[in-house]
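Hi V.,

You were right to ask for the full record rather than a summary. Here it is.
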Amino acid sequence: MKDKDLVYRERNELVALLSKIYPSHLSRHTKEENVDKDYQWMICIHFPTGQGRWHLRKREREATRHLKWKQKCKWDGHSTEEKYERIRKIEIPNK
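Predicted structure:
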């Protein structure tokens, strides 16, 4: 396995874990959006602090079998930095 593939696999496993904690679903770009065929799938997570979406390749979907598909997942315009800032702002209750 290539280093880049390993990094994405690890990231996808962590995103899949987050999708088990927060309301989430799979979504897919439409043909009109003209996105690379290999990256049309997305995990959409609705955090208390806002939306987060991650692209994943079709072959990487094994970690997301628990998610239902929902075509309507309107991107709220967040940047990658905003997405991770939203994650950093999540308050975790006392353990």
